[in-house]
Design goal:
Helix 1 packs across helix 3 and helix 4 packs across helix 5. This protein starts with a helix and ends with a helix. A hairpin with a 2-residue loop joins strand 4 and strand 5. It has 172 residues and is α+β, with helices and mostly antiparallel strands. The chain folds into two domains: 126 residues, Ribosomal protein L10, N-terminal RNA-binding domain (Alpha-Beta Plaits, 2-Layer Sandwich); 42 residues. The protein has a five-stranded antiparallel beta sheet. It contains six helices and five strands, in the order H-E-H-E-H-E-H-E-E-H-H.
């Protein structure tokens, strides 16, 4: 049994974390075994993402106090946990989505991205997006492509010139 003081402390901590987040993903973990849940938490922690299992009423209170307009989590059936991402909007959703593909007991319920409430389909679509690093890599490749082609074209002309000069030298 959790005391009122402990609940206030949990609520204060949760409100603080909710005020710093970029992404929240709510998921149902009914049927998930303890070792599977620990594996999920480890994967999330490695990426700098927090996972909380808190009573739904405390989640609703924390969301209300932090100013986020979210449908009542209390009305969602099952055991609900939340994942908070602080650096990247996509990472928490992607990790949960990949884990849910391997463990059918985990179900993504909803999410909040930069203050906007998302249903589970939108969160899953978000999870399928490439990571920020992948997008930056593609951008660099796109920008450097024409430059690389120009350098090769210029080198080709120099190679041809050297080849012609060496043939002239051999004939003389």
């Amino acid at each position: 049994m959790i005391t009122k003081d402990k609940k206030k402390e949990i609520l204060k901590d949760l409100v603080d974390r909710l005020s710093r987040q970029k992404t929240i993903v709510f998921f149902n973990y009914n049927g998930l075994k303890v070792d599977q849940f620990q594996e999920l938490r480890t994967k999330l922690r490695e990426e700098g993402v927090d996972c909380y299992v808190v009573k739904k009423t405390l989640i609703d209170l924390a969301l209300e106090k932090s100013g986020l307009k979210v449908n009542k989590i209390k009305k969602i059936p099952g055991q609900i946990a939340l994942v908070l991402g602080y650096e990247d909007e996509v990472t928490p959703a992607r990790i949960l989505y990949q884990f849910a593909k391997e463990n059918e007991d985990l179900k993504i319920v909803a999410g909040v991205v930069q203050g906007d409430y998302l249903e589970n389909e939108a969160v899953i679509s978000l999870a399928k997006l490439p990571s920020r690093q992948e997008l930056l890599g593609k951008l660099v490749g796109t920008i450097s492509g024409p430059t690389y082609g120009l350098v090769n074209a210029l080198k080709g002309n120099l190679r041809k010139l050297v080849f012609v000069l060496s043939n002239i030298k051999l004939e003389v």
